Each structure stands twice: as C-alpha cells, then as structure tokens.
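Q: What would this chain look like folded?
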Amino acid sequence: MKIWDISPLVSKETAVFPGDVEFSRDVSLNMQQGDHLTVSSIATTLHIGAHTDASNHYHASGKGIDSRNLEIYLGPCQVIEVSVPKGARIVPKDVSSPISAPRVLFRTNSFPNPNQWNSDFNSLSPELIDWLAEKKVCLVGIDTPSVDPADSKGLESHQAIFKNDLAILEGIVLDKVSPGNYTLIALPLKLLDADASPVRAILLEKELLNA
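A: My prediction, written as structure tokens:
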C-alpha cells in the first residue's frame, strides 16, 4: 500500500512563527563519542512542522490536546487544491470539488519551503469553517503554518473552529499529493494540557475506515 508522508522534516532549520521557540536537540550521551548508548533531549515549540492545535491554544475555555478524541485524527480524508492570491483567505466559492470526506486538507502551495518563513501564506476564512461544519467535516488541515493569517490577532478562523468543535492540522506538506480521497493518520501525543502536538501525518492510498 502506498503511503504519503505529509510531515516536513523537523530540524534546527525548520521555520517557526517569528518569536516562537526554534527546534534544538541536546545530546547528553553519544555512542559516537564512546558512551554506551545515545540519549538526547529536545526543546521546541509544540507548533513545529506538522502539528495539531488544541482548543486551549486559541480559546480561554479550551482543553488540552490530551483530552481530544483520537478518532478525529484517523479516517477518510479528502485533499482539495485551491488557487487564490497570496495572503488571501479561502472562502467557500474557492472550493470547486464537492466535499466527500469528514476530514479535509487544503493544498494551497503558498508555503513552499518549511525551512523558509513567508508571511503571505493562504489561510481559511470563518465562512469556510462554518460551511465545512455544515457538511459534517470534523477536521480541517492546511499546508501552511496556520488556518489564520500570520498577522491575525483575532484568530477568526480558530474561533470558528472552536465554535463548531472541529480539529486543526497545520504545517503539512502536500506538494506531492494529488487531490482526491485518502485515509489520514495524524495522531497527537498525549501531552497533559498541551496547546498543541507535533504529529507524523501520513496519507494512505485507500479509504480504510468509514468514520
């Protein structure tokens, strides 16, 4: 079975929101230097690479990622490609394909290099979130660092996602994935009260699950 890895490589080169904590790895024991094993630790924002936000990241009444139902992050998924101007939010009229899965990932091609920050990436509109919720979508993803614009303070799409109780998947890489239907696996770590979790997001070529 074909697998698409839609997670960017995480390293010290990975771009993060300006001012956020960049990835670093500290090796405390190293077999290459004569130690009996290799042990290391990392420091990084939880919003690194492919990641899923928890609702306490954007709403005072939100909950940590450990409380999220894992079934949301596993199941039938649809990849939709859109073409909108740089920096624009995607609205319902930009979506030419009918929604055919409960998890929708948008391929915008507007954040082409995970190691190079650009603020003019595409994002989602609150109207799009409401529209997707009406179609029983439970998770929305995008190949950019955020579902809102980089300079947004109101986080309108995040708030619409909270209102509709959707899940978020950000920072994925879809440049080698054709539009169509797949099975998504993007399970968050069980981090107590965490505002997000990095994930190893993959797509399988067949729809294996019905939910």
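The domain at 3-8+46-204 is CATH 3.50.30.50 (Glucose Oxidase; domain 1).
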